[in-house]
Amino acid sequence: MIGRLNHVAIAVPDLAAAAANYRDVLGAKVSAPQALPEHGVTVVFVELPNAKIELLHPLGANSPIAAFLEKNPSGGMHHVCYEVDNILAARDKLKAAGKRVLGDGEPKIGAHNKPVLFLHPKDFSGTLVEIEQV
After folding, report:
1. Do the beta carbons of residue 79 and residue 9 sit within 8 Å?
2. pLDDT band at 53; cut points 50, 70, 90
3. Which residues are catalytic?
4. Which of 48, 73, 89, 115 counts the highest number of beta carbons within 10 A?
5. pLDDT score recorded for residue 61
6. pLDDT value of residue 32
7. Residue 65: which residues within 8 A CB-CB, separation 6 or more?
8. Full domain range(s) for residue 18
9. Beta-bridge partners for 44
10. Number of folded domains in the chain?
11. Is the Cα dihedral 6, 10, 11, 17 positive or negative?
């Protein structure tokens, strides 16, 4: 069902500093910041040859990333994202297997302008999983 790894998301307390580390220290191609108010985050993508790193920073006080950073003030890995061909079929298969889809179970449009869903970390070895239709 799942395809390739799309990205690993890292919550960061200072988006500019984190982007500079990847760009200036590691020599990676780094996108401009993109605000996603519907998700409560600002994101920067670090382009790698085989996947991306998504740097997440809170956008507003109600951001889920703000709560994450309260528990992890230095930041840390937030989720992994896998590609799927058909997000609705994937969702239905996951639910039939007893896996929990977060939110209302309906896909939302993610940072790549593609449908995404998040899966409960307790169902995946403590890791928040995002699936994205490609």
Report:
1. yes
2. very high
3. 130
4. 115
5. 83
6. 98
7. 11, 40, 41, 56, 57, 58, 59, 78
8. 2-133
9. 55
10. 1
11. negative
